[in-house]
Amino acid sequence: xxxxxxASLALAAEQPxxxxxxxxxxxxxxxxxxxxxxxxSALGTDGTARPGIFxxxxxxxxxxxxxxxxxxxxxxxAQWDRAVGPLQFIPATWQRWGADGNRDGVNDPQQIDDxxxxxxxxxxxxxxxxxxxxxxxxxxxxxHVDSYVTAVAGYANTYAARAK
Length: 164
What we know:
Largest sheet: 2 strands, antiparallel
Number of strands: 2
Shape: globular
Number of domains: 1
Radius of gyration: 15 Å
Mean pLDDT: 96
Strand content: under 5%
Order of helices and strands: HHEEHHHH
Distance between the termini: 15 Å
Helix content: 40-55%
């Protein structure tokens, strides 16, 4: 949860009008990868998922087809894109929003601090996330499924309530 909280604090300083809570990032992280534990991965003490987390090839069979956008640099495939890291970034999205949340000089989608800050910046692009309609629009943009938005809200509310 520290990666989510750190990203929320960084965003409060750099984009105070966004008002993104850490619990939203935690909700995304839970759904996208079980906080970096998908398929036997774990976050190391450095916050990096090992082994790396990769979604299925977006070859049109189960999900929309997305031709390669990164030459396989982030997702290991030079034919099709795959979502990467604990917050499941498509390589082209990572190329635009990638961040260095842990300030080690590298923006790595497999590193939770980097991924959480990048996800936060992506979401903050939708404005003041304390407004329910802006929050919903931002989460829907992250994954275009209404049930996903509802699930993120549920987890975010649960995490926020537990923190009180």
